[in-house]
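G., the chain you wanted modeled:
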Amino acid sequence: MHVVKLNIQDSIYNHIMFLLKNINTKELEIIEDKKVISDNVQYDKWNKSELNSIGKIGFNSKSFIDDNEDYSKW
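Predicted structure as tokens:
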């Protein structure tokens, strides 16, 4: 038994998975790590207005949308 780990770019991911899934599955187990690695995001290059406009998941609470939901019932 051998274990191989591949770091696959998004552009060829579907092709590689197609290839692997068409191999005899009695002799191959495919274990996908669903974590997507993205080290290309450079937040220091974002300007303040971009960070403020991210929305509910933003870094600025002023960007949160007010709602009338009573969350104490949850």
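The two ends are 50 Å apart (CA to CA).

Shout if anything looks off.
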